């Protein structure tokens, strides 16, 4: 019986150390695949909107986490009988509040997903009513917006826009700082790093309105489904 001689590994061979034969599972392969993915994304996304895309992706991930937490809370059964009627009423109110927040989260996800889709298809940053560019300050303050401010206000007066609205800017280190629609007057010269950090701290507040667009989307024939998770 001949002894088995182990051949030294050579660079460029089919099987690298730490990987299984026939499977591209090495660390270098994974890194290369990630680099190729980033390259494709870089070619797809207009560099002008790269900050907006990153901000929307971060906000989407946060909304998904919040939605998962709300789904767990909503699935908890209510006590069928309580000796204290006040406690029972409180439990029911809390349950209804969770369901209301869950609905708002769904609307928020719809808006964020739609904005990401517009970045990918090249229509981002244009008012859906006038076809004119939306001011950069507004896109920084409300990166998911579909309309210029004056158009949105007019549509709201005409009752075209209805439903819940995305909420306040709330820092994870502090309290709410105001409604999103009210901060678009931030000057263009604001330090970009600070602006990025603040925008990435957007969260949904359960007690405020947000920019709706489902009704408006129907007026434009836009029925784009949310992106897959």
Portion in helices: 40-55%
Radius of gyration, in Å, reads: 24 Å
Number of strands: 2
Q: Unreliable stretches, pLDDT < 50, 5 or more residues?
A: 12-43, 167-197, 202-225
Classified by CATH, the class is Mainly Alpha
Number of helices, counting only DSSP H or I runs of 4 residues or more: 7
Instruction: Give, in order, the helices and strands.
Output: HHHHHEEHH
Overall structural domain count:
1
| Average pLDDT figure | 63
What's the CATH architecture? Up-down Bundle
Shape label: flat
> How are the strands ordered across the major sheet?
1-2
End-to-end distance: 56 Å
Report the biggest beta sheet as strand number plus sense, adding barrel if it closes: 2 strands, antiparallel
Strand content: under 5%
How would you briefly describe this protein structure?
The protein is mainly α and 229 residues long. Helix content is 48%, strand content 3%.
Descriptive report:
- The N and C termini lie far apart (about 55 Å).
- The protein is flat, with a radius of gyration of 24 Å.
- Strands 1-2 form a two-stranded antiparallel ribbon.
- The protein has seven helices and two strands.
- About 50% of the residues lie in helices and about 5% in strands.
- With about 230 residues, it is mainly alpha-helical.
């Amino acid at each position: 019986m001949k002894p088995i001689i182990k051949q030294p590994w050579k660079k460029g061979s089919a099987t690298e150390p730490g990987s299984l034969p026939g499977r591209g599972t090495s660390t270098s392969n994974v890194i290369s695949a990630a680099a190729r993915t980033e390259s494709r994304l870089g070619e797809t996304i207009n560099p002008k909107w790269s900050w907006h895309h990153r901000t929307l992706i971060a906000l989407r991930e946060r909304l998904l986490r919040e939605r998962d937490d709300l789904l767990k809370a909503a699935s908890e059964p209510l006590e069928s009988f309580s000796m204290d009627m006040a406690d029972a009423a409180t439990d029911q109110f809390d349950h209804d509040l969770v369901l209301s927040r869950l609905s708002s989260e769904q609307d928020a996800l719809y808006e964020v997903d739609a904005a990401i889709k517009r970045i990918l298809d090249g229509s981002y940053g244009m008012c859906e009513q006038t076809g004119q560019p939306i001011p950069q300050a507004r896109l920084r303050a409300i990166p998911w917006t579909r309309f210029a401010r004056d158009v949105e206000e007019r549509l709201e007066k005409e009752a075209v826009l209805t439903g819940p609205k995305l909420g306040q800017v709330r820092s994870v280190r502090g309290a709410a700082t105001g409604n999103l629609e009210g901060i678009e007057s931030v000057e263009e010269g604001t330090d970009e790093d600070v602006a990025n950090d603040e925008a990435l701290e957007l969260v949904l507040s359960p007690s405020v309105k947000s920019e709706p667009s489902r009704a408006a989307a129907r007026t434009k024939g836009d029925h784009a489904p949310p992106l897959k998770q």
